[in-house]
Design brief:
Among the domains are: 2-64; 94-333, Aspartate Aminotransferase, domain 2 (3-Layer(aba) Sandwich), CATH 3.40.640. α9 (237-242) links the parallel β4 (220-225) and β5. It has helices at residues 2-21, 46-58, 80-92, 104-119, 132-151, 155-158, 175-183, 205-214, 237-242, 302-309, 336-370, 395-402, 430-441; strands at 125-129, 168-170, 191-193, 220-225, 249-254, 279-283, 295-299, 375-377, 385-390, 409-413, 416-422. The protein contains 13 helices and eleven strands. α5 packs across α7 (175-183) and α11 packs across α13. It binds pyridoxal-5'-phosphate. Residues 74, 131-133, 174, 176, 227, 229, 254, 256-257, 283, 295 line the site of pyridoxal-5'-phosphate.
Length: 442
Amino acid sequence: MHDDLDRLPGLLSHHAAALLAGLEDRPAAVVDRPPPPRRPLPAPTGLDGALAEFTERWEPGLSGSAGPRYLGFVTGGVTPAALAGDWLTGVLDQNPTSRLDSSAPALEDETTGWLAEILGLPSHTGMLVSGATMSNATGLAIAREWLGERAGISVADDGVGALGEITVFSAAPHASVHKALSLLGIGRKRLRTVPALPGREAADVTALDEALTALDGRPAIVVANAGTVNTVDFDDLGAISALRDRHPFWLHVDAAFGAFAALSPAHAGLVAALDQADSVCVDLHKWLNVPYDSAVQFTRRRDLQLRVFRNDAPYLGAPGDVPADLTPENSRRFRALPAWFTLRAYGRDGHRAVVERNIAQAHRLGALLETTPGWRLLAPVRLNVVCFAHETRSPDEIIRRASPEVFVTPTTLWGSPGLRAAFSNWRTSDDDVERAHRALLQ
Ligand SMILES: *Cc1c(COP(=O)(O)O)cnc(C)c1O
């Protein structure tokens, strides 16, 4: 192992650098290459042997998901500074779970503070979690504790059964919200779908008002959306927030990637009321362009968060100020470092430029598809996603034909099968948009 240690700098400057340089030419997706058969653990051959085998057996099957024409899901790239931060995360291998041994947790606080600053969340504090799914689950766990507070009990101590039935409202919740409701013992069936405005995924606020009125003063949870995955629709956060004057509910906003609309002055109005939410979910491995896995859970009620996640381990330090007391995990990686690096290196303006470029690219692809015979948009382009379909070709067929040049993902919108192309990578150029369009037509 010590020999390998001496050779690491060379490996980094050769092997990793070559992979990085080849990223734009990697296949966007590898769709027709079966993975190599599993085999028993071979005799050890050191790092050289491991690297040779990885390069031959596994690397060809890996996608160019960090590259410019991977438009599937909502997949961010990795800025150079974020990658440097990620490399250092592995080198330093901090465990920011307690404050006893290093200033790593303080760097995490600075990072979430910078994010709160650029995303317009001055009333919130943030903690790092692995992704938006975990951020939604954490936010909804705090919501559940708030329901307990209203009922004069502690769900953390007495269990969710002490609360009775919980009602959750949302117009177009992300799949992960259903998972979170299952995980938290609230139950998937407790989600009441709020009617959306005609032709939209945004909630009809009048219908939500009526549904809340029917609860007769019983507290509820509302999950609002700031950027749905198919049509990137935004709930009217200001109007929903104002309903709290008349109805008791916890407002959780899933702003996994839509929060970054705040960086574009032309779109910031969509999230102007985000700070009024009680909890907010923001992914960093999407539009901030840091490597997996990284997201933030923002809340205005850290006291309730502590009640839920309190770890009560004297060896971690005084309860309350310990990161492990605030999130589902105890030990974890120094997750904030890549985000700290990219924010410090490029700032609000650098990330604003990425967001604005991606928005323009989505509009460009939308315009190209709209004027190409046989193709149609399933929804207008609102931000960075194009949702579209072909008259006769199935989504699967289009995905296969477009690969390896470009990767898009299938979806269903209002019962119609379609495809989504999501722009969220700093590397994507305007030429990549033209290439993606040509590949889709093949
Ligand atoms: C991506 C996404 C999620 C889930 O995020 P993960 O990072 O995959 O856990 C939740 N909500 C929205 C709106 C998303 O776009």
